[in-house]
Amino acid sequence: MERKSTDQKSRRKPSGAAVIRSDLTRSLHRALFEEWAEYGYAGISLERVAARAGAGKAAIYRRWPSKREFAAGAVHAAGISLSDFSDHGSLEADIGAFLTANRRAFRHPLIRRVLPDLLAERLCAGELTSVVDQIAEVRRENGERLLDRAVQRRELSASIDRELALDLIPSPLYWRMIIRGRPISRAELDRQVTALVAALRVC
Q1: Where is the signal peptide (predicted)?
Q2: Tens digits of per-residue pLDDT, 15-70?
Q3: Domain of 42?
Q4: Strand, helix or coil for residue 183
Q5: Does some domain include residue 3?
Q6: Which residue has the higher pLDDT, 79 or 54?
Q7: Can you tell me the mean pLDDT for 94-120?
Q8: Within a 10 A sphere around the Cβ of 73, how many other Cβ atoms?
Q9: What is the pTM of this model?
Q10: Are residues 59 and 133 in the same domain?
């Protein structure tokens, strides 16, 4: 009987070998962004990323088949494409929440350095083009819902130029914080909200 029990134990597969640890995945994402911020996407070394995360390179390839898929997963997981598009009761409150979420993201030192490089990959038709396009598509769809709510509340005209509106909403904040590299106070953010609401009503 004891031999049978021993044989059964010997036939069991190691339980930890195929387990994808979420804490290590987060560490790999963080290490990737640190590497990306320092060297740019083109200069990323997966060996260095793994070392930063205290892991082996195999830990990366168990999760993602390529550097592109690794980067795409990290971008989505980190929420670079994420903003607050939820319903806050009014157009002014919705835009305020959206800009506040973006301001918080743009203040992060890694995002400030990675985001321009990510967009440069898009402009150069690099391998992350489809990733950026997917992010942009999701943001536009969520932005459409924000505008739909404002139209339903009669805060905006149903004939609003939606392409212009969706281009306009994030632009002043991005220009201020990412292009010019300058901070923005809460009072200045509130003034942007007021200006954007006024502009959207004549779009």
Answers
A1: none
A2: 445 577 888 999 999 999 999 999 999 999 999 999 999 999 999 999 999 999 99
A3: 18-66
A4: coil
A5: no
A6: 54
A7: 92
A8: 17
A9: 0.80
A10: no
Query: Could you give the C-alpha distances from 127 to 63, 69, 94, 111, 124, in angstroms and in order?
Result: 19, 10, 34, 19, 9
| Other Cβ atoms closer than 10 A to 188 | 15
Residues in the chain: 203
Report the pLDDT value the prediction gives residue 14, as an integer from 0 to 100: 44
The 8-class DSSP code of residue 42 comes to: G
In this structure, the answer to whether residues 116 and 31 fall within a common structural domain is no
Neighbours of 25 (CB within 10 A): 20
Is 78 within 8 Å of 33 (Cβ atoms)? yes
Report the alpha-carbon angle 113-128-44, nearest 5.
55
Q: Is residue 44 part of a domain?
A: yes
Q: Are residues 48 and 107 in the same domain?
A: no
* Number of domains into which the chain is organized: 2
